[in-house]
Amino acid sequence: MAEGPDQPGLSSGKTHKRWVRLSHWIITLSVLTLAFSGFEILMVHPRLYWGKAGNDLTPALMELPISRNYKHGGYDERVPLTENASGPVSASRTYNIFNQNGWGRSLHFLAAWFLVLPGLVYALLGFLTGHFRWNIWPRFRKLRARRIGGDGPQYKPLQKVTYTFVIFVAAPLMVLTGLTMSPAVTTAWPWLLDLFGGYQSARTIHFFASAVLVLFVIGHVVMVIRSGFRRQIRGMTLGR
Amino acid sequence: MEKKDTSKLITRRGALIVGAAAIGGVILARRFPKILPPTCGNFLRAGDSFTYGMQRALLSESSLAREYRPEDMTSFPATGTTDPATDKKAEFGGDYRRLQGGAFADWRLPVGGSVAKPRAFTLAELKQFTPRTQITRHTCEEGWTAIGQWTGVPLSAVLAAVGALPSARFVMFKAYDGWADSIDMVDALHPQTILAYGMNGRDLPIPHGAPVRLRVERQIGYKSMKFLKSITVADEFVDGGKDGNIQTGWAWYTGI
Asked: Is the ipTM of this complex over 0.95?
C-alpha cells in the first residue's frame, strides 16, 4: 500500500487530536490488562452457563480446557439439599483448584476503571467535538465527500463500520455484562439481570464479546503494521 | 456566521457539562466513605478502595438484592472449609468438634465491642428473633453462582438488641475455621444481611457453615462467612489482621 493522502489512518495534514491519542493509549493499556486478568479469572472456573445460576454441580453450556480446573471432578458424594431427593444437591470440594483471583480480580477491576472513566470522557468529547459524527460514524451515502472545516483522520468505510461496532456495541456490552456480574450493582440496578437473562448469561456474553474484541485488536494491529507501523504509531502518539 | 453560532453552542454546552460535572463531583464526594480500608502498600488494594467508594457513592443503600422463586433453587457446591472439625488448617477445629458433638447446644455467639450491652447468644436465642427467609443468588469469586434459601435473624436486629453505639462503623466476624472479616455499617444494617441458621428449609448443613453463617447478599460469596464464632462492633476499620482478607491477598470489599 503506497503512502499518500488516501490511505487509511492518517492522511497528510490530518492529525489525531491530543485527547484521542491520550484516551487511545490509556484504553489500550486497560484492554490489554483486562484481557490478561480476565483470562486468569476464566481459568479459575473454565465453565460457561446460560441463565441465572451455574456451578460445578449443574450442567455447563461449554467447558474450556485452559487450566487444571478443567473437568477436575473433585467433589465428595452428592447429598440432597432439600426434602425433594431428586432436587438440588450439595457436595464438598476435595480438589485444590487453581485460583489466583486474589490479584486477578482486583487487577481486572482496577484496569476496568481505566476503561470506564477515560471511555466516558472519550465518548463525551467524541459526541461534542463531532469526532464520532465526522470521523467514526460510517456514511454510506457520500453526501459530504469533503467535510467543511473538519480535521482528523479519514477512515475507509469498512474501518468506520468496525470502529463504530467496537465503540458503540462491543465496548458498552463488555462494561454492561461486567457490571451484571457485580452483586452490589445488580442490587441497585436489577434491570441488568433482566437485560442479559441472568448472571451466568451475562458472564457468557462477557466472554464471547471479549473474544471478539481480542480479534479486533489483532486485526487492528495487523492493519497498523501493513499501513506503515512507524508512521501510524507516531501519528497516534505524537499527533504527527 | 454559521461557524460562529456553532462555537457559541459548544461553549454553552461546555458550560453545562462543567456545571453538571461540578454538581456530580460534590454529590460524589459527600457520599464517598470517610474511612477506607488500608492498602498495605499494594496498588491493587487502592483500586478495591476506589470501587468501594464509588459503589457506596453511586448506588442506593437500601435496595434489596434479587430474591428468587423456590423453583429457581440450584445445586450448591460447598467450598473453602467444609468441616472445621476435620480440616487440619482450621484453627479452632477441636472446639468445633466438641460443639458439633453436642449438636451445637453449647455454641455461643458473643457480640461485643462498641455496644451498650455485650452478650452471648445461644442458637435458641437467635431463633427467637423474628426470622427472615430469602432465596438469593450466591456469587462466588471463582465465577460460579448458586441459588439457595436462607433463614436467619437480620444482623440489624442483633445489633439493636446489644445496643450498637452510634460511633460504630464496622462489624467484624471470626469463624471456627480461623477466618476473620468485616463489613461496614451499610452492609451490616441492610435488611438482607442475616445470621443464617437454616438453608433450603432445613438446619444449616456443616459444609455450608453450621450452626450459623453470615449472608451478605450485596457482596461476593466469601464475605458470607461460615462457622461463626464471634462478632465485634468497631469504630475503626478492622479486618482481622493476618486472618483478614487484605493481608491474605484478597479484596476486603467485594461488591463487584
From this structure: no
